[in-house]
Amino acid sequence: MRHVTGTLTHALQPAPGPRPRGARVLHDDGLLRAWTVGHPPEEVLRALSGDGTSEVILVGACLPTAREAQDAVDAASRGHWHAAGRLSGSCLAIVRTGRTLRLVGTRAASVEVHWTSTTDTLAWSTSAAALAALTGAAPNLQRLLASITTWGVEPGADGWFDGVHRVPPGSALTLAPAARPAVERPPAPVGRPFADAAEALRHELPLAIGLRAPAGRPWSTDLSGGVDSGAVTCLAAAHADLTAVTYVDAAMADQDDTRYAAEIAAAYPGITRHLVDGRRTGSRHFDALTDRPGLPVTDAPSLGVGMLGILAAQLAPAVAAGSAGHLTGWGGDNVLDAFASPADRYRSGSRAAALRDAHRLARERRSAAHPVLRAVAATGRGTYPKALADLAETVLAAAGAARGGRRGPLVRHDGRRPLAHPVRPGCGGRPHRRPRTPCQPRRRPGRPARTPRSTPTSATRPPTPPRPTAWPSGSACATTPSRPGPSATTPTTTPPSSTRCAVSATAGTSLNAPAWPPTRPGRPPTPPTAS
């Protein structure tokens, strides 16, 4: 696991402290120490000011040019430390001005800064797991669960392990020998007209791709046929010949993007295109997870781990070509198609603009507009804690319905009020707030109550089949998937739509055994379901 780690000693007479195993010294002046683990020397770039009072150290991949690093250290000497955080590349920026040290990760959170403090020493690292190993901290299960269920929500200073803090992306952890650690946020960027921003993008995007071109070595790109990967591939082909990979499956094989990818490759002679069909390679989601020692180690849960089998098949042509770097179009929608959240704009008072954004969002996602408008209005009238509580209630209600409806109330971590209400057994897993008789129908105002239905006597009631006493292991109700997922080879498990679905097979019986519970008089029997 590659990372950069350092310590700041508070003691007047510092003693030698722990250092990472297999580390290379990056900085050591007695009080401030820093090491690199797994980073070769060519992934370290230094720039020093003319008077020697300021320094910028960059550690990582895709480093900027020496001229850009020198401009960043000159800006830091004038107090603009955030200039180092805006450099291109995926790297950690260590900005030293006098005896003050600022640690800046990437704005896209590809490199993050974590820290923990004791009585004598403050330790920081780009790996939260390394600090947890140093202090013996346990994982923060609530934080890890929130990172999966609330994708896109910035957690702030909450870390992945107890006692290990996290610096928000783009911010700096400021360390000084005689001061407490502080988190500094960069100044907000100055807005610019759309035409000026488009011109800046036209200049910066080819420059960024050119900086990542390996000199005299082969490289590769993704070429799905979309705007993002297509633009990256065309700009990369202007620098050197490359290998472009198009991955398809049953859902993507007949889409227009696949045809666009073929047209782009035909227009550029320097592009060697490889079409990888997941149906032929047999790659599926959640493959390659049995080899636990071979899985990548990450601080937070990564959804990309579920695509290891697909990525292995997709990158096989690039590996065979000896590619020294692989470019993708991931994140292009976040940068080029990003706009303020409609719910945030609604909450801030710009309700008309928020509803227009919601309508545009629904049109771009090819979904109905009214549900999106209702969701934006409902979310805008509430708060984020309430929205998260409602999300937890919805998820837990569905989980309770899939388990048969027997679930008790789940209280919040602070124990003040429940996140979700109990689920009524046998009523489709619908949550309720007021105690009522199970499955009692709601009455509309002004409508008379129905006459109770007569209960059949023992003479008219059909015989009740014996209730199963042994359930087969692994039996489940078969349901029809709602729609195919992103890959036709993706195994999907759809929970039962209601808690009334019956298991129609018992140990030692056939699939034609009568279903439980028995059908009502006058109704056709329910066909047995496969298990």
Quick structural gist:
The protein is α+β, with helices and mostly antiparallel strands and 531 residues long. The protein has helices at 66-77, 128-135, 141-149, 194-211, 227-237, 256-267, 278-281, 308-320, 332-336, 342-348, 351-364, 369-380, 384-402; strands at residues 3-9, 24-28, 32-37, 44-48, 54-61, 90-97, 100-104, 114-117, 121-125, 165-166, 172-175, 182-184, 219-222, 242-248, 271-277, 326-327, 410-411, 418-420. β6 and β7 (100-104) form a beta hairpin.
Structural class: alpha+beta
Distance between the termini: 44 Å
Please identify, by name, the CATH architecture of the largest domain: 4-Layer Sandwich
Helix percentage range? 25-40%
SS elements, strand count = 18
CATH class of the largest domain: Alpha Beta
CATH superfamily of the largest domain, called what?
Aminohydrolase, N-terminal nucleophile (Ntn) domain
| Integer tally of domains | 3
The largest β sheet comes out as:
6 strands, antiparallel
Please report the number of helical segments.
13
What's the layout of helices and strands?
Layout: E1 3-9, E2 24-28, E3 32-37, E4 44-48, E5 54-61, H1 66-77, E6 90-97, E7 100-104, E8 114-117, E9 121-125, H2 128-135, H3 141-149, E10 165-166, E11 172-175, E12 182-184, H4 194-211, E13 219-222, H5 227-237, E14 242-248, H6 256-267, E15 271-277, H7 278-281, H8 308-320, E16 326-327, H9 332-336, H10 342-348, H11 351-364, H12 369-380, H13 384-402, E17 410-411, E18 418-420
Parallel strand pairs: 13-14, 13-16, 14-15
Antiparallel strand pairs: 1-3, 1-9, 2-3, 4-5, 5-6, 6-7, 7-11, 8-9, 8-10, 11-12, 17-18
Helix pairs in contact: 10-11, 10-12, 11-12
